[in-house]
Amino acid sequence: MKLVKRRAVVAVRMVGAIAIAGPALLLGACQTRTPETRAQQLARICADPSSLRPDSFYFGECVAYKNPTANQRRQIYLNTAPES
């Protein structure tokens, strides 16, 4: 009787392990695309002209990423400077 009970416990543990590991392995196999680096993400985001508007969420990052010229920095300052 003890042997039957022990086999049942082992079987339940194996089923539990497979139930947990199976989906994890399948999910890992589905994610084959390599993640983008931050520079690649910013290149894609900053290519959109709306990201370069001062009220955009990505405005600061895009300005830093694009490394603006002196004239562009002046224009950015004039567009974003607080009014006195």
TrEMBL record:
<keyword id="KW-0732">Signal</keyword>
<protein>
    <recommendedName>
        <fullName>Entry exclusion lipoprotein TrbK</fullName>
    </recommendedName>
</protein>
<feature type="signal peptide">
    <location>
        <begin position="1"/>
        <end position="21"/>
    </location>
</feature>
